[in-house]
């Protein structure tokens, strides 16, 4: 399991680039979503919290990775089944004969990942526990109790995310 403020790959960070990208992040879930940019030091910077169905236009660069987190449960959300979104240059899909052309925003749909039955079940139970110790009161194997206690603790602990 990754640290609170890290993605599995700790080398994920923004790199300098001249390749602009214009995106529209669209919350395609029923959850409030934190839109997070990973800066040049690999730190998470929250740009916006999107209510369900809302969107946010961002002018970014092709080498700037983004994350999307459920603001209440801290569960990771995805774009095209990927936890980390990496924008493409604005001209990526244009044909040579189409230049010059006005830059258009790429629509980026934030969705809920396809969880296994086990993962989703643990999330539902976690959402009904108020304290980590409550997990040990359930008639479950010790390994699941420990995992649930950790999940409750993580959902209660604010992430160290800078705000834009």
UniProtKB/TrEMBL annotation:
Could you say which residues form the signal peptide? Answer: none
Question: Which segments constitute the von Hippel-Lindau disease tumour suppressor alpha domain?
Answer: 115-149
Q: Which Pfam families match?
A: VHL, VHL_C
Q: Where is the von Hippel-Lindau disease tumour suppressor beta domain?
A: 12-88
Top-level taxon of origin: Eukaryota
The protein's matches in SUPFAM superfamilies, at most eight in alphabetical order, are given as: VHL
Please report which protein family the annotation says this sequence is part of.
Belongs to the VHL family.
Q: What is this protein called?
A: von Hippel-Lindau disease tumor suppressor
* Organism from which the protein derives: Zootermopsis nevadensis (Dampwood termite)
């Amino acid at each position: 399991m990754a640290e609170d403020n890290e993605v599995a790959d700790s080398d994920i960070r923004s790199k300098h680039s001249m390749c602009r990208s214009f995106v529209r992040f669209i919350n395609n879930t029923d959850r409030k979503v934190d839109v997070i940019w990973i800066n040049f030091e690999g730190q998470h910077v929250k740009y916006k919290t999107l209510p369900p169905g809302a969107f946010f236009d961002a002018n970014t660069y092709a080498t700037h990775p983004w994350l999307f987190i459920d603001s209440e449960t801290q569960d990771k959300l995805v774009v095209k089944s990927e936890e980390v979104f990496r924008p493409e240059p604005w001209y990526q899909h244009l044909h040579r004969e189409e230049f010059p052309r006005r830059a258009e925003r790429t629509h980026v749909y934030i969705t809920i990942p396809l969880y296994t039955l086990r993962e989703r079940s643990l999330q539902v139970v976690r959402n009904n526990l108020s304290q980590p110790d409550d997990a040990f009161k359930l008639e479950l194997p010790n390994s699941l109790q420990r995992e649930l206690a950790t999940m409750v603790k993580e959902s209660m602990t604010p992430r160290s995310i800078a705000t834009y």
